[in-house]
Amino acid sequence: MAAADVRRDAETPPRNEASHTRRVSSWREHHGWSAGASLRRLAARPLGSLLTIAVMGLALALPLAFYLLLGNVQQLGQALGQDQAINVFLQPDQAASQAQLLSKQLGDRSDVASVAIKTPQQGLDELAKLQGFSGALDALEQNPLPFVLMVQPKPGADAATVARLIGDLREMHSVAQVQDSGTWRQRLDALLGVGDRVVIALALMLALAALLVVGNTVRVDIASRHEEIGVLLLVGASGAFVRRPYLYAGIWYGLFSGILAALLALAIEFALSGPVARLSQAYDGKLHIGGLPAWLLLAVPPAAAALGWLGARLVSAWQLRKAA
Amino acid sequence: MIQFDKVSKHYDGGHEALSQLSFTIPTGEMAFVTGHSGAGKSTLLKLLGVIERPSHGAITMDGQNLAKVRGRGIPRLRQRIGMVFQDHRLLMDRTVFANVELPLTIAGIARVERGRRVRAALEKVGLLSYERQLPATLSTGEQQRVGIARAIVGRPSLLIADEPTGNLDPQLAVEIMGLFAEFQQVGTTVLIASHDLPLIKRMRKRVVVLDHGRLVADLAAEEVL
Fold it and tell me: Which of A27, B11, B20, B31 is 20 to 30 Å apart from A44, CA to CA?
């Protein structure tokens, strides 16, 4: 090696001055390198990586499973609620003509789907069919049962609408009693409302847990490579340059755990499909149980990758500030 | 030009590593900083690399006050400085080529240009045939030369070395110093911290002598006996 060689090299253009295009090209190249290197690091310690991905995947799958369960309970409630009429018992002295009139008035309401009249005789016949009642009914001198109107609210009517309808029915003079067999439905709706909130809260908490898992994994990774980071900083690497492989690691953890979560959700859906089909048959096919929407399943991996990136970004920024 | 103007450095606990240090190193000069262990040699180099900050005084490099360099300015400044360490500070899981290439990758130099310059740097330090090896397979002297190749590959305006021959045999130490002298010949300012007095005398370069953080002698090349 001669001094002339060194001099010749020194005469070639200035130190470390790269054009903008070259810098962009090099920046892209480093992104590619960081993505590959971080993936290789994950593969280099398969057990640790798999455990991290499994924990994150399970954390992300839980809200999906709850979402699936809640959606299906809603469907079940709607299916079962279709046949739940409000029974309106008229005063005992009401005649058939008045029952007809009232039935027509109620049938004209926008919140009522249909009204059926059950005569006192029909009621008595039903009672007679029940074991143990036939003897008692024979002892009656006259039929004590009133006309009953079976009012079916409009499908999809919410709890408030049904409650308003019941209130109006109770206000009527000719009505003795209103039996709301849909009360359970209101309670179910209220429970489902609580369930909705629980799913949102769970999703947020478990997303935070996934964020912390990634953050901690990246923190440990950075701690184990503090010497390398020190060297990079000494030779002029910027924080962004040093951070890049760790951000990609976060993205990989998130992406793989998102895929795992989507697969787990599909597995749960598949496991439920058999019993649900039998349940649907039991309701004459009226029960339509839905799975998770495709858009949601497709959105989970990229959303989880973004979550992983965020966790890695927060922790690496903090760790590198300490290292610098 | 590097200028130290009444530079002091105090560490937590009151230890004074440098005290009222003032001297100037013109561009393209090669100088040694020497003194006993604890004299402040390493601290002085750390201040130049913005690894430490002065407690008092100002250090200017080509008119830039290093005390005011913050944030993104630090990596930009470090890209203009080549640093050589006694413990080499190589990345042991990357090849010799990848280690030397690092400053160029950071600086955003294109791949083809990087390859050319890395091979030129490795040729200068006599390690071209080792480019695909991992540092762990090299001897201490060879690792040091990889460290030097990494320091010079970015054509820094300042080359600082902290005890670069500390772990080397005398013959290899002379070779390494010869390399530094060559870089000085092409206009790079070279500042070397060393306590190897026989080697320093042999090189016949300017010598800045420190004792307990104070400048006790500043000898021109011709004054070194």
Answer: A27
